[in-house]
Amino acid sequence: MDTGNVDKTNVDNDLYLPQTDSFWEMGKYNRVVKRCDDGNKLTTDLVSMISERAELEKTFSKMLKGWSKKWSDYVAKSSEFGSMSSAWKAIMGEADASAEVHQTVHDELQNDIIPAIKTWQKTKYVKSMMHVKPTKDFDDEFKRAQKPWAKLYVKVDKYKRDYHTATKNLKMAETQENNSKLDGSVPSDQRAKVAEKLERCRKEKESAKSKYNEALQELNRANPKYMDDMNDVFSRCQTFEKDRLVKFREFLGATEKCLDLSNRLQSSNFQQFSQTIKNCDADKDLSWWSDIYGAGMKMNWPTFEEYTEAHRTLSRRVKGDIEKENPVVVTAIRSNANSSSGVAPVDSRLSTNNAAFNEETDSASASPYMGSYHQQVSAPADVSPSWVTNSWTNDYGVGTSNGGHSSLPTYQSSYPPTANPFYEDDDMNNGDSLSSSHQPSHQSPTSAGGSSFDSSAGVPVRALYDYEAQEEDELSFKQGDIFTKLEDEDDQGWCKGRVGNRIGLYPATYVEGF
Questions:
Q1: Which is nearest to 323 in space by CA: 353, 285, 361?
Q2: Is the Cβ–Cβ distance between 428 and 365 less than 8 Å?
Q3: Which residue has the higher pLDDT, 192 or 33?
Q4: Structural domain boundaries, residue 319
Q5: What secondary structure letter does DSSP report for 368?
Q6: pLDDT tens track for 423-476
Q7: 415 in helix, strand or coil?
Q8: What does residue 375 show for φ and ψ, rounded to 5 degrees?
Q9: Residue that finishes a domain, picked among 436, 454, 472
Q10: What is the SS3 assignment for 127?
């Protein structure tokens, strides 16, 4: 019984420990070999990562440029002015500078860092038919280093199993012997066989244990060389991997320097940007605006002007429901050798009245000859009083002279009554009465008798000036042309006539009776 207990204790102590995940186990070096393949894959992934970052830099640069152009166009067309407009533009200028920097980062990543990594990878991880060549070499070296030790290990494992089986059989034999002793019905010969079997199991156990111990001792003697061989290969793998780690550090360091914008964005640009913002001065901007568009603008206040020959504008209303202005501007006055009026050539010039009140009014008191500027026509000194006083019948309340010569108009303000906030009806009525009271008593021969003719054939007239038609229903003619007047002057200063086979309208003051 005591022997059995001792044997049981020894068996428990000698039980072989289960396999671990140690590098020294058979085949566990494959993780070291796989690390070589992983290094190649990591290199490829590093290239992909940097390539994506380069594309992001390029995209961001493009977005910055688009953003800058969009808002630069907006500022150019907006109502912003002065130093504040410069501040807006400074932001867009910073965006353009940043866009150039990010484009430079993209170019360096794509043209410098990525090609360097690919070149190193091609040299480091030489491709074979199925695998990377260093991976295949390391795997073969590990197999050669582990092969002798692996044979001993297999032998130990076999003797271990034999010893465990013999120990199990011995325990079963001991149990049978104890049962036979307690059972008196068991024949003596049967008891003898059980005792014989027990002795045989003890011998087998001792033999298996001896072989097992010998195999372990042999394996232990081979362990140092095995470890040296494995360490030698593992050291080369470590050196191989260390080279990768060192190179990766260089590549990532170069990438970090490339992405470091602090060395690229010049401080002078930001200083200029900051100074532009600080230079924003609301008072200066408002003062500039006042001088250009507001109360600080210069004004050509009305002064006494002596009568001079100048441009004047004729206009008429288009017949229809909708009225619109169609001014006719006298661009030149030339003498006509055949004309009896004796009008001498004169130079024309434009009045300097403010254009802010140049809009023509529709009221009865406003002159239809007022255009975009207040314009006057001066009469030469040698013109007879009858020519001067008999002019612009329907516009200024006086008759039309013989031949349709234009005469001096009554005084007409360049400001439309509706544009004058101080205008009152009484003022206009007084002005009309005053004007009427000073009108000459001369009358055109046509004013007493209505129309100067009733014949449908018309009356011949001679052109005093050149005139180019401004609309389809108007006539064109040159100075000295003779054509037919079909109708007298209307309330807008136009006559109907015929030039050749064309019938149309022309300014009454541009012709004289023939």
A1: 361
A2: yes
A3: 33
A4: 307-454
A5: T
A6: 444 444 444 433 333 343 334 334 333 344 444 578 999 999 999 998 889 999
A7: coil
A8: -130, 150
A9: 454
A10: strand
